[in-house]
């Protein structure tokens, strides 16, 4: 096989697996920029092995192993960076385009609420949870990826599953209910309507506002808990917001959510976590850090949503 043909084949094989690699690594790291860096390293490792020439027997397994272990090797640096982060850190939101069907989006979308819970796991526990619970890898398949025994993987999986399920009950809100709740919440929040907010917020609701110290919106330095405190914080912020925000409803990390635009620039992404019956909001995730909104392009503003 000539070098040019080998390069073309290597590129095609990597492209065939890129979506899977992105989803796995993003769910491990919660950062698009860090995920792209990991995928670049995975590509370089793949190209250097000349996988297209047949030197790699199972390209999918090889690429997943390289990507997962590269992500793990970056965890220490990522953790140090987050120690100096101003205010709560939230995952970078993945916003679906308006012209793409939900079915065509990443099929293994992990909700913002679950990603926040995954932040409390150890890196190894998170890797095992993502591979096993999200992507369906068997323990015996994960073992060689992480250079651990199947018994060690089962123990990590058990700890991770128990930890996650204690903090995040297993249910999925109906998309129509989620959209309706988001619309009601935004109407109350942008109108600084304390009474309406108290009706939709669960008593134990928590508000996370990720501005990274760079947002034009006021962001709390710690999560705020309790319906009264959250309602007052939201109403107070609404009074200081830009006057002409456009609200666009999009799928964010697999859930119907809202993207707010100040003219043509993304201003915030709002994601709600509902209780089991879908009637109350138990979690509000507001990402206003402009660095985490740069990948939201003007085309996603759409027409007629706000």
Characteristics of this structure?
alpha+beta, 10 helices, 306 residues, 6 strands, globular
What does the overall shape look like?
Answer: globular
β-strand percent reads 5-15%
Alpha carbon gyration radius: 21 Å
Specify the helix fraction band: 40-55%
What about the largest sheet?
Answer: 6 strands, mixed
Poorly predicted regions = 102-107
Query: For the terminal residues, how far apart are their CA atoms?
Result: 55 Å
- Total number of strands: 6
Order of helices and strands: HHHHHHHHHEEHEEEE
> With helices defined by DSSP (H or I, 4 residues minimum), what is the helix count?
10
Structural category is alpha+beta
Mean pLDDT: 88
Structure, explained:
This protein has a 6-stranded mixed beta sheet. The longest helix is centred in the first third of the chain and has 27 residues, at 3-29. The chain is 49% helix and 15% strand. Helix 2 (32-49) packs antiparallel against helix 3. The chain has helices at 3-29, 32-49, 59-83, 112-118, 123-134, 139-146, 150-167, 175-190, 194-200, 227-238; strands at residues 201-210, 224-225, 245-252, 255-262, 265-274, 281-287.
Task: Give a brief outline of the structure.
With 306 residues, the chain is an alpha+beta fold. It has helices at 3-29, 32-49, 59-83, 112-118, 123-134, 139-146, 150-167, 175-190, 194-200, 227-238, and strands at 201-210, 224-225, 245-252, 255-262, 265-274, 281-287. A six-stranded mixed sheet has the order 2-1-6-5-4-3.
